[in-house]
Design a protein that fits this description.
The protein is α/β, with parallel strands linked by helices. Helix content is about 30%, strand content about 25%. The structure holds S-adenosylmethionine.
Length: about 250
Amino acid sequence: MSPAPRGLCWIAMLFLLQVHFQPRISAQEPATNSRYEFREEHDPNGIGKFYLGREIAHVMGHPAAIWLERPEREAEERLTLLTRLLDLKPGMVVADIGAGSGVLTMRMAPKVAPGGKVIAVDIQPEMLLLLQNKLSREKVSNVELLLGEANSPKLERESVDLILMVDVYHEFEFPYEMLQNMTQSLKPGGRIALVEYRLEDPRVPIKLVHKMSEKQAVRELTLPEWNLEHTETIDKLPRQHLMIFTRKPSQP
Ligand SMILES: C[S@@+](CC[C@H](N)C(=O)[O-])C[C@H]1O[C@@H](n2cnc3c(N)ncnc32)[C@H](O)[C@@H]1O
């Protein structure tokens, strides 16, 4: 199939999967709703819930995992370059939040060995099962699977050197609560690497609510309570921002 019709097929298939296989959205908790705004008129690809002016996107259902595994992804997202830019070292503990079928986890695990590990977190057990099958098949032993909740990845305090989120933060139903746990889980000097499709670039062929501007991401991740510094934005990937946030030294 030529590239253009194949692209259209992917879009049509993803649309069908989005419509028919939405993961369960957890009940809204009254105590946390004041941080969020709900609007009746909204983008059909969003859930009608807004955080700091941004509409939250639908979670990508597990039947669409095939899209995460598409062969053209390397050219479109330069995953090898992305993994290199993360500056991984043996011994590091990395959390891949919203790991999906584990495309990034599988690339990172050998780079933190020996002595290090990747904690792959997702809210869909079906995604973790796909990853478990890969781990068994390829005999990878330094990956832990963790079933998270919509409002917490349940990471232990000060246990992680690097948190990676690729194409996931924009679909967190509770971004504030997720950041609460994630920032507490960072070791001193630990980093968050946030990868999102560039909203500023209209040529990036992704639905609007599945993209984020650098300005919006920096706004959300540098609220004073997170104690994070925006240390760098690396725009070397064809379609995505790679934004690095570093835990600041704790106040004496
Ligand atoms: C678009 S996929 C990206 C998967 C993977 N990062 C990749 O790039 O191949 C987004 C994933 O994030 C997961 N997700 C959504 N909200 C989550 C949350 N609050 N905690 C953990 N995972 C979440 C979804 O279940 C889905 O598997």
